[in-house]
Amino acid sequence: MASFFSTVKRIYLAIYNWAVFTGWIQVLIFAIKALNESGPAAVYDAVEKPLQLAQTAAILEIIHGLIELVRSPVSATLPQIGSRLFVTWGILHSFPETRTHILVSSLVISWSLTEIIRYSFFGMKEALGFTPSWLLWLRYSTFLLLYPTGITSEVGLIYIALPYIKASEKFCFRMPNKWNFCFDYYFASLAVLGIYVPGSPHMYTYMLGQRKKALSKLKAA
């Protein structure tokens, strides 16, 4: 019975990883095509739907961690996925004024390259039981460049959105109301920016540690 559930788990995770991999491939192709034909201002419109779908699918990774379907710690997965969902839905989807900025291009390319490598890595691991050494190296090395470019783009787009958030008062709840509760999306966004200050170096250091472990095993093999 344990063997049966293990097989089902591997099949499910393989399908999940390859499905999301396909979504990110689509995002990258659409982004490059839009950049080549129309420039950075056209990138968001070209990738909007597949970007939202692929990024939102990552919520399942939090669930996978919570039910221990995978070994990835939720403490590392949740902040990264949460910040990306905030940018995807809370910034780009909610404030169209940000969509034509060149940082959208660097964001989409950084995210898609990262995820294409990551999902293919885990997809091969689940489907075949191993990953080629070159893919393992890419998985634990490309973040050295792509994480800073992705984080810079995220922070930049949140900052660019701040005036529009403040002016629109979208998602704000003012008192008095029957719940006796108030919420200001502008200050919440500032708080998110503040979290990036300690959070980004911590996450980068964590990934450097993971890289050291993974590549040391590769050398030993």
TrEMBL record:
Transmembrane annotation, as ranges: 12-32, 102-122, 143-165, 185-209
Primary subcellular site in the record, as a coarse category: endoplasmic reticulum
Keywords: Endoplasmic reticulum, Fatty acid biosynthesis, Fatty acid metabolism, Lipid biosynthesis, Lipid metabolism, Lyase, Membrane, Transmembrane, Transmembrane helix
Cellular component, GO annotation: endoplasmic reticulum membrane
Topology versus the membrane: Multi-pass membrane protein
Protein EC: 4.2.1.134
Catalytic activity: a very-long-chain (3R)-3-hydroxyacyl-CoA = a very-long-chain (2E)-enoyl-CoA + H2O
Compartments (UniProt record): Endoplasmic reticulum membrane; Membrane
Known pathway: Lipid metabolism; fatty acid biosynthesis
GO MF assignments: very-long-chain (3R)-3-hydroxyacyl-CoA dehydratase activity
InterPro entries per UniProt: Tyr_Pase-like_PTPLA
This protein's record includes keyword Membrane: yes
Biological process per Gene Ontology, one example term: sphingolipid biosynthetic process
Family: Belongs to the very long-chain fatty acids dehydratase HACD family.
Record's function text: Catalyzes the third of the four reactions of the long-chain fatty acids elongation cycle. This endoplasmic reticulum-bound enzymatic process, allows the addition of two carbons to the chain of long- and very long-chain fatty acids/VLCFAs per cycle. This enzyme catalyzes the dehydration of the 3-hydroxyacyl-CoA intermediate into trans-2,3-enoyl-CoA, within each cycle of fatty acid elongation. Thereby, it participates to the production of VLCFAs of different chain lengths that are involved in multiple biological processes as precursors of membrane lipids and lipid mediators.
Protein name as annotated: Very-long-chain (3R)-3-hydroxyacyl-CoA dehydratase
Species this protein is from: Rhynchospora breviuscula
Native organism taxonomy: Eukaryota, Viridiplantae, Streptophyta, Embryophyta, Tracheophyta
